[in-house]
Design goal:
The complex is a heterotrimer. By secondary structure, chain B is of the alpha+beta class. Chain B contains 7 helices and 12 strands. The N and C termini of chain B lie far apart (112 Å). By secondary structure, chain C is mostly helical. The chains are: A mainly alpha, B alpha+beta, C mainly alpha. At the B-C interface, helix 1 of B face helix 4 and helix 5 of C.
Chain lengths: 328, 312, 202
């Protein structure tokens, strides 16, 4: 069964390293998928993001005279996840700026791995969202499956299109809603052949990676099931009452629900340690996500929902584990 | 007891001295504050209708003004408001005598939309789109088919707020626009008489074509930047003798400072002695190409009608 | 006396050390000009309220001192408010409600209560100057950092000067907007406090 340990332990030694490299392995299918859908530039931006995350971590630890821990791979994960959260036609400096913010402000200033309150990659994304909103929300490129376009200008000039979620937010026309609810759309969302961030589009590839982590026990399925499940149930209820125009399957497949729910909410450092806490964590995040999507200003609510729930983690950890849990 | 009295006394003194000081400051600054307010208002009115020859008359305080030029009303300026994403957006809009938008201006100061998104409503490209639109066209392209306006990417709420503020303002205030059609129907009378000079007028087509001596005079219209421009042309043996372009007091309502430079003797002279086929070669007034071309087109189309009319 | 002045800038720095009066600090420092304007307005109020309160400290009854302080401070704040409205209307619009709110700025009341009320006018004046200068410097520095990073320009004066493009056109067009949003204020103030404490500890 799962060996669950409270947060401070995981920053120690080889165990961390092993977990981190497994996570990187689990993200690989989605990375390959992103190159297939969006071309080589997806890989280029991801590498750039990873490099700047690693360099920031190294420099911070060097300057402040801490023991260098860059080989444990946690900054690599932050870099990959951050790159997964931006559009493929972003300028090259966008993932760099995001990674520097993620590592410096959201992680190292709080004390480094194990002490950060917020998921660094999501904090980096929130930073990018607030700083360059037009780059983060307005320039989605249509996937160009299988053509493996080049690194720079080719994809930059590619056809831009609205993501399914921004369509939902902006156009409430009957025909648009019909196309969003169609089986074809759901199929495209499942396999990843839609516009969106680099790593979020293919639910299938993300699920394959996450399944590996669940089996190895490096991520808790309760959080993911709680998160994705609550989005499904909540948006399903709203769909039945005709509040939400699109069906619950659309909600869990579109946007970053899979990426966020499987890889970012389950971040060991920023999620609760108790089972009950994890259920609440996932469930609360799902509800917030649907609320933002349907009534908020942004088309997508995954990143903010997880960041908000991150803030509750210390509180959830305090809930007495005696009554409910196997944890002492 | 003594302590009480002292307390009351001190409070009393503070209560006397401080308002006294304040009333002095208030008296000194009030006229200045009012003057700066007025100056700012005037400045924003000038910005949406930049012409030094005009005069503004307040119809409703802070919301509606009429623009007068040579004592004839050439349009209105209004201010409307609508809740944007995080603040109230209050565009100032100038409208010409045909009810079409001339220009709008959204003040950056005091507006607090999201920087980089909603705040972009203050950008020129967004505001330029409104130029020349009428009430029906004041919709976002994505909201209505007849809409002619692009929203700012990812700032639909702010864009929509501006568009509906402008549209609703126009709907409310268009009744204050002077109806140009009635007053300017016969705008050309004076000009016609001066073009005819001493020769006897002979009407060939009512309100369209006249004959005086060896000259024909025809009336034509071209679509300019913000209004229809009327042109009177006197012609002899297919050579243009004189051109009269409608004056502002006759209903001409082009962009002040640009299009209005077309009504200038120097421009009229460029046509003198030219044959119809040479018109295209005449230089336009720089910065007012559209208005200049409108005049040229008016002369050319009018000429075609004149040929048909003469041969009848 | 000069000691009081220097202390006011560094040892008793309103923002970095005492950490009071943070509300206008976070709110108006979106540009260097705003920060400077706010700092100078508060300094004016601080100097005069300190001076008056110190001069009349012997006749102000102890149990009524707070309301009297507030009335005195409010008087000077209103003077500043009207003056700004009349002569620098753009600045007045930008600072908005934060000028009237100087009345309840705990920095000013704090100095009146904590210093001016038991020191002679000379010292109170020096304290007002020092504290005011320290406050103004920090507001200006914060405004500078936030304006340069957040808008890509420096020292923009609305209606007069469009500002220096410190890092060039390209940066101005894609500046870090976060820095002029509220989180930018918190980040900047945290950064300044951190750096300040680093040097003070040495």
């Amino acid at each position: 069964m799962l060996q669950l340990t409270p947060a401070p332990h995981i920053s120690s030694g080889t165990n961390t390293k092993k977990i981190m490299y497994s996570v990187i392995l689990a993200l690989t299918p989605a990375l390959i998928g992103s190159v297939y859908f969006f071309g080589w530039r997806a890989l280029f931006l991801t590498i750039l993001s990873v490099l700047s995350a690693e360099v920031t971590e190294y420099l911070f630890q060097k300057v402040t005279g801490r023991e260098s821990r860059i080989s444990n791979g946690s900054a690599v994960i932050t870099g990959i996840l951050l790159a997964f959260n931006i559009s493929v036609n972003s300028p090259w400096w966008l993932p760099v700026a995001g990674s520097i913010f993620a590592i410096f402000v959201a992680k190292q200033v709080f004390g480094g791995l194990g002490y950060n309150i917020f998921n660094p990659a999501l904090a980096g994304r929130a930073f990018l969202m607030a700083s360059w909103p037009s780059l983060m929300t307005g320039r989605w490129i249509a996937p160009n499956s299988g053509t493996l376009s080049g690194l720079s200008s080719i994809t930059l000039d590619g056809v831009t299109q609205a993501t399914p979620l921004s369509l939902l937010k902006l156009h409430q026309g009957e025909s648009v809603i019909q196309s969003l609810n169609s089986p074809g759309m759901l199929k495209a969302l499942f396999f990843g052949n839609v516009g969106g961030c680099i790593g979020e589009t293919s639910a299938l590839l993300l699920l394959i990676g996450a399944l590996y982590l669940f089996i190895k026990g490096y991520a808790d399925w309760r959080i993911s099931v709680g998160y994705i499940g609550s989005i499904f149930i909540f948006s399903g209820i709203l769909y039945l009452f005709r509040v939400s125009p699109v069906n619950p399957l659309f909600h869990i497949l579109a946007g970053g629900v899979m990426l966020g729910g499987l890889f970012m909410a389950t971040d060991l450092v920023t999620s609760p340690v108790t089972r009950k806490g994890r259920w609440i964590f996932g469930f609360g995040g799902g509800i917030i996500c649907v609320l933002i999507r349907l009534w908020g200003g942004y088309p997508e609510g995954v990143s903010y929902s997880i960041l908000l729930m991150n803030m509750f983690v210390p509180l959830l950890d305090r809930m007495a584990p005696k009554v409910y849990g196997g944890l002492k | 007891m003594k302590k009480r009295v002292r307390q009351v006394l001190v409070l009393f003194l503070v209560g006397i001295i401080s308002p006294f000081l304040l009333s002095f400051v208030y008296r000194e600054t009030k006229p200045v504050i009012e003057r700066t307010k007025k100056e700012q208002l005037n400045k924003s009115l000038q910005e949406v209708f930049p012409d030094s020859l005009i005069r503004f008359e307040t119809v409703k305080n802070d919301t509606l003004w009429r623009i007068y030029k040579n004592d004839s009303c050439v349009g209105i300026i209004y201010r409307s408001s609508k809740k944007g994403y995080t603040s109230v957006i209050r565009p100032i809009v100038s409208v010409d005598s045909r009810g079409k938008i001339i220009r709008l201006k959204i003040q950056k100061e005091g507006l607090s939309e999201t920087p980089g998104l909603g705040m972009n409503v203050t950008e020129d490209w967004f505001q330029e789109q409104f130029r020349g639109l009428s009430e029906d066209e004041l919709w976002l392209k994505k909201d209505r088919e007849e809409g002619k306006l692009d929203a700012i990417t990812s700032a639909t709420i702010s864009s929509r707020a501006v568009v509906s503020a402008v549209r609703e303002g126009l709907k409310n205030f268009k009744k204050y626009i002077p109806s140009s059609s009635s007053t300017h129907n016969e705008w050309f009378r004076n000009a016609l008489e001066s073009l005819l000079g001493n020769s006897r007028m002979e009407v060939i087509i009512q309100g369209k074509l006249w004959k005086g001596g060896d000259r024909y005079i025809y009336l034509s219209q071209g679509e300019g930047f913000a209004s229809m421009i009327g042109v009177l042309v006197s012609i002899r043996n297919d050579t243009i003798q004189e051109v009269h372009i409608q004056f502002p007091e006759e209903g001409f309502c082009e962009t002040p400072g640009y299009g209005s430079r077309v009504i200038d003797e120097e421009f009229d002279k460029r046509f003198k002695g030219k044959a119809i086929q040479d018109i295209d070669g005449i230089d336009a007034i720089s910065g007012a190409t559209i208005t200049s071309n409108a005049v040229k087109n008016a002369i050319k189309t009018g000429y075609k009608e004149f040929i048909q009319g003469r041969n009848r | 006396m000069s000691r009081t002045f220097i202390d006011g800038i560094i040892k008793n720095n309103l923002i970095l050390v005492l950490a009071i009066g943070l509300c206008p600090t976070l709110a108006v420092t979106t540009s260097a000009y705003n920060g400077l304007g706010m700092g100078l307005a508060a300094t004016f109020v601080l100097i005069f309220s300190n001076l008056i309160i110190s001069a009349f400290r012997n006749i102000i009854p102890d149990n009524l001192r707070i309301p009297i302080f507030i009335v005195i401070i409010a008087t000077f704040v209103t003077v500043v408010d009207y003056t700004l409205k009349a002569y620098v209307p753009f600045l007045s619009v930008q600072l908005g409600v934060f000028v009237p709110l100087i009345v309840v700025n705990c920095g000013i009341l704090g100095r009146a209560e904590g210093f001016a009320y038991d020191h002679s006018p000379g010292y109170a004046l020096m304290d007002g100057l020092g504290i005011g200068l320290g406050f103004t410097i920090i507001l200006f520095v914060m405004g500078t950092i936030r304006e340069i990073l957040g808008q890509g320009i420096w020292l923009k004066i609305p209606g007069m000067f469009s500002g220096f493009k410190v890092f060039g056109e390209a940066f101005t067009n894609s500046s870090v907007i976060l820095m002029i949003l509220p989180p930018g204020g918190f980040l900047t103030i945290a950064l300044l406090m951190g750096i300040f404490n680093l040097f003070r500890r040495k």
